[in-house]
Design goal:
Layout lengths: L4 H6 L4 H7 L6 E2 L4 E3 L6 E3 L7 H30 L8 H22 L2 H24 L3 H22 L2 H8 L4
Helix pairs in contact: 3-4, 3-6, 4-5, 5-6
Length: about 180
């Protein structure tokens, strides 16, 4: 039985006809910055927008915070191996490994342009400032205090780089070009 004209229009074309219907040149912009070719099933990722230099420096600064936490963990392990009877369990035993991973994740998140990472790295030093103050008051050693003061300064620079320059705010404002 032949199809009527209205039936032909509403009928879904075969996959072969669908492929022929999209044979114009050039890629098709897909979801989440993925570009797919009109000529085949392969998926080609478009290059992400590069981060401005201020964001790159801020991400490196956040990475330095992560490195500082790792060095404290290494010092604690070294102290445990050198003098096991004098080693104690303190809040830093749990805090520093978790913070190292958190700061590393935040560095990657900030570099990729996620605004949630920028907000998190803004809120985190506010809470840590209180803890750093108590550590500053508890440990009179010059090395500890120098580490805390440089951490405060690094946090201030990172926050300034993430919020002050217009190019940085633009990097976090747009997700996909």
């Amino acid at each position: 039985m032949p199809l009527r004209r209205a039936d032909r229009r509403t009928r879904d074309p075969t996959p072969r006809k669908r492929e022929r219907a999209h044979t114009s040149c050039g890629p098709v912009r897909g979801v989440f910055g993925v570009t797919r070719s009109r000529h085949g099933p392969e998926v080609v990722r478009s290059a992400p927008n590069p981060a401005p230099p201020a964001v790159l420096v801020a991400a490196v600064g956040i990475g330095v915070h992560a490195f500082n936490h790792v060095t404290i963990v290494v010092q604690d392990v070294w102290r445990l191996l050198a003098t096991p009877d004098a080693a104690t369990f303190n809040p830093g035993t749990v805090y520093h490994p978790i913070s190292a991973v958190l700061y590393l994740w935040l560095a990657v998140t900030v570099h990729s342009g996620r605004n949630s990472g920028r907000v998190a790295i803004t809120v985190l030093p506010a809470f840590q400032a209180v803890g750093r103050y108590f550590v500053f008051a508890s440990y009179p050693e010059v090395e500890v205090r120098a580490d805390l003061v440089t951490g405060w300064a690094l946090s201030a620079v990172v926050l300034g780089l993430l919020w002050a320059p217009a190019t940085t705010r633009g990097h976090f404002g747009k997700r996909f070009a």
